[in-house]
Structure formats: structure tokens, C-alpha cells
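Hypothesis: this fold can be encoded by more than one sequence.
Test: take the C-alpha cells below, design a sequence, compare later.
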């Protein structure tokens, strides 16, 4: 895969941060089509960017022949987005608490924490050949 592929409600990108802008434009465009408030769009865009970066760097280890899939859908007032990588997976219980004294000065390790603070729900689960993280946010303020 050499470039992003968009099919309906899904974008698949090569494992490179060069394509983050493509994901952002895709997600924001759909959210605007849903009539989402700009502050909600911003929260979702930050969350998706963080999770796609994690999928590329931690999940797929930036291996050239891997990809990241981002799928968006709406169910009533809620929007759900699933980010799926092709990595070995991880145990979410093993994520360090970024608020613990020993972690406060670390430069990394706050992504999932930030996403959880911005989204209404975050589910991390094994996927076929990787990890899927589904985030959900109400479009009503």
C-alpha cells in the first residue's frame, strides 16, 4: 500500500505519519456532514490522531508493509470510530498511570489517558491480526 484508500466510512493508510492529514481531513469531513459542533470535532480529531500515531508506532512498529484502518459510524446521537492496527497487541492494564509521581516527567505515555478524558467511551480489544480501539462520543453537547 503506497497511499490512503477510502471506501465509504473507512480509510486505510500505510503505517506512516505522513498520512495523518489524510485521516484528519476524512474524519473531520464526515463529522461536519453529521452536523457536529466544532469543539466535538476537535476532541475527536485529537483522539483519532493520537490513536493512529500509537497504531503506527507502537502497534505496527512503523513496518512498511502494514496499515492502519480507521472506520467511522453514527448510531443516533453517538459517533463511533474504530482504529485497527496489525501489531502484536497489548494489555491495557499494563499502561502506566501518567499521573503517578514516577511518570509525571516522562515525555510519552499520556495518549490513552488523553483520549479517555476527551471521549465518552474507549474500548480496547484484540482484532484479527492486531488491536482495535473504539472511541465513542455523543454529538450532543
Amino acid at each position: 500500500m503506497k497511499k490512503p484508500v477510502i471506501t465509504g466510512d473507512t480509510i486505510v493508510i500505510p503505517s506512516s505519519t505522513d498520512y495523518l492529514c489524510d485521516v484528519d481531513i476524512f474524519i473531520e469531513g464526515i463529522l461536519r456532514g453529521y452536523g457536529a459542533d466544532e469543539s466535538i470535532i476537535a476532541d475527536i480529531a485529537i483522539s483519532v490522531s493520537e490513536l493512529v500515531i500509537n497504531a503506527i508506532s507502537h502497534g505496527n512498529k512503523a513496518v512498511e508493509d502494514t496499515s492502519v484502518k480507521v472506520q467511522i459510524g453514527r448510531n443516533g446521537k453517538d459517533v463511533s470510530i474504530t482504529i485497527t492496527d496489525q501489531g502484536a497487541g497489548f494489555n491495557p492494564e499494563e499502561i502506566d498511570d501518567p499521573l503517578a509521581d514516577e511518570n509525571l516527567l516522562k515525555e510519552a505515555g499520556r495518549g490513552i489517558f488523553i483520549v479517555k478524558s476527551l471521549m465518552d467511551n474507549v474500548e480496547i480489544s484484540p482484532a484479527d491480526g492486531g488491536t482495535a480501539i473504539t472511541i465513542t462520543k455523543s454529538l450532543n453537547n
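The chain has a mean pLDDT of 88. The helical segments are 20-33, 38-59, 111-118.
Hypothesis status: open.
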